[in-house]
Amino acid sequence: MRLPFVSRRREYIIERLRRDDAAEVARLHREDFSRPWSAAEFGGLIDQATVFGFVAREVGHRHAIAGFVLARLAVDEAEILTVAVARAHRREGLGRELMDAVLRQLHADRASHLILEVDETNTPALALYRRLAFREIARRRNYYEHAGGASTGALVMRRDLR
Ligand SMILES: CC(C)(COP(=O)(O)OP(=O)(O)OC[C@H]1O[C@@H](n2cnc3c(N)ncnc32)[C@H](O)[C@@H]1OP(=O)(O)O)[C@@H](O)C(=O)NCCC(=O)NCCS
């Protein structure tokens, strides 16, 4: 799937995540997550039949990956494994486009619902998910441990698809 769209400033395409993208998405993931996944871990996930994802590429600029999402669909239950947009490309609608691509795929596959887990202090992600009609279904206290010993809770969110 190639879905061209123009954000406020730049032009992007949304494409299927491929095995070849593992190193580039691992680099992007490292920018934001205290426990980054390696290129090998991403490659292993992408190889799984139940796992799929999308990348947003900036048109021109060697089509560099500006954001990606990885999801898993097992029988009819889906989960977001991770989603990230490079800092320089945030608030241009990429997070929303990537999540919409996953939702379209899941509708086509007749999935029943989509689950995700998010740090309760992650304001941008919470705003994105609430905007996409996810609702909280559980809260896990002291779930994420941060450098220096602090910890924050996780929210489990769900979006029904039928
Ligand atoms: C969460 C994340 C993926 C959002 O990506 P993005 O491309 O900036 O999001 P979008 O531009 O598509 O924003 C869609 C909507 O989400 C909300 N939103 C996104 N960022 C926000 C912010 N910083 N503050 C408030 N609302 C925000 C807004 O409602 C926004 O719509 P609007 O711009 O029309 O107001 C991005 O901030 C990111 O990569 N964060 C680091 C990784 C991460 O936390 N991933 C989630 C782990 S669960």
What layout of secondary structure does this protein have?
Layout lengths: L2 E4 L4 E6 L5 H9 L8 H9 L3 E8 L6 E10 L2 E9 L8 H15 L4 E7 L3 H9 L3 E11 L5 E10 L2
Helix pairs in contact: 1-2
The chain binds coenzyme A.
The site of coenzyme A has 19 residues, from strand 5, helix 3 and helix 4.
Could you name the CATH topology?
Aminopeptidase
Spatial sequence of strands, sheet with the most strands? 1-2-3-4-5-6-8-7
Bound molecules: coenzyme A
Overall structural class, as computed from helix and strand content, comes to alpha+beta
What percent strand?
A: 35-45%
Instruction: Give a count of the beta strands, DSSP E runs of length 2 or more.
Output: 8
Uncertain parts: none
Order of helices and strands: EEHHEEEHEHEE
End-to-end CA span:
23 Å
Helix content: 25-40%
Number of domains: 1
What distinguishing features does this structure have?
alpha+beta; Aminopeptidase; eight-stranded mixed β-sheet; 4 helices
Write up what this structure looks like.
The protein has one domain (3-160): Gcn5-related N-acetyltransferase (GNAT) (Aminopeptidase, 3-Layer(aba) Sandwich), CATH 3.40.630. The two termini are 23 Å apart. The protein has helices at residues 22-30, 39-47, 94-108, 123-131; strands at 3-6, 11-16, 51-58, 65-74, 77-85, 113-119, 135-145, 151-160. It is globular, with a radius of gyration of 15 Å. By secondary structure, it is an alpha+beta fold. The longest helix has 15 residues, at 94-108. Coenzyme A is lined by residues 32, 83-85, 90-96, 118, 122-125, 127-128, 131. Residues 32, 83-85, 90-96, 118, 122-125, 127-128, 131 line the site of coenzyme A.
